[in-house]
Amino acid sequence: MGFKCGIVGLPNVGKSTLFNALTQTAAAQAANYPFCTIEPNVGEVAVPDPRLTKLAQIAKSGETIPTRLTFVDIAGLVRGASKGEGLGNQFLAHIREVDAIAYVLRCFDDDDITHVDGRIDPLADAETIETELMLADLESLEKRVPALEKKIRGGDKESKLALSLIERTLPLLQDGKPARLAQRSEDEERAFQALNLLTSKPVLYVCNADEDSAATGNDYSRAVEERTASMEAVCVVISARIEAEIALLPATERAEYLEAIGLEQPGLDRLIRAGYDLLELITYFTVGPKEARAWTIEKGTAAPQAAGVIHTDFEKGFIRAETIAYDDFVTCGGETPAKDAGKMRLEGKEYIVRDGDVMHFRFAN
Hints:
The protein has 14 helices and 12 strands. By secondary structure, the chain is an alpha/beta fold.
């Protein structure tokens, strides 16, 4: 199951530096973790999770395989992209293919790096990106209304729901607000996502700050953080330059370097984790002497569908899941002690998998 986070931004905001740092980090992980660069602008990175390392140590697993997240470096945006300016059509098409969007915003001063608009204003940059996406959504929805009205006259119930969702979304877009703020019930979510709106996707604001502000942020990044509080979005402060340097260091030297600049962990780890959480993903584990492995599923996934992430046969023939909570596995010291202590549960088809579950699936061939 692949989850993609698209990286977008205006020219000269550090987008390419950030993506290169991500791919260099992934390449550095290759000695221990699976990694592939699918295309020059696509890279998969391991999602940091110390729980997996702990489980592997307890089980003396021969291999440790983390779950992964895909980042896509999307062609740079220019004002007028919604009308085809620059690489507008390509830009919008690539965004439709991702599950979440990371806006890289310039939060640093540097006279040697010009800004496309001649000023440093991350909030204005964010509004430029969002405006182009909203204009594209607005045009898309307005074009659909006549066809839906025609289908409704023929008694089509799905079209009636789609039009209702559009009628709730259009006023937001016309008022300069993203589609993700549209009111809808849980039962309507699938139909809403089927509209495939650019501004319905969850957003991660990445504040690319100068090296001195990487740990504490600055006035630019604080302004962005205030904005995100009311936009149902997440904000991460990072220094792309520092991350590029960290990515090239041997693993043994990274902790010392981070401590020297006042950071507890690489900003990229926080970015990857934030992207994972933004998509409302959780992790379950399979653990044994051969390997300890993390698996990505969406929050709310039932046990058979979680098993299907490993192999479709597991879902089709699902019988039950032998399940141990992560804390119980660690406290008891492994699968057998946890089972002896009565901490292993037998869960059926209705069980909703929890983050951190250690699972073994039983299925019929």
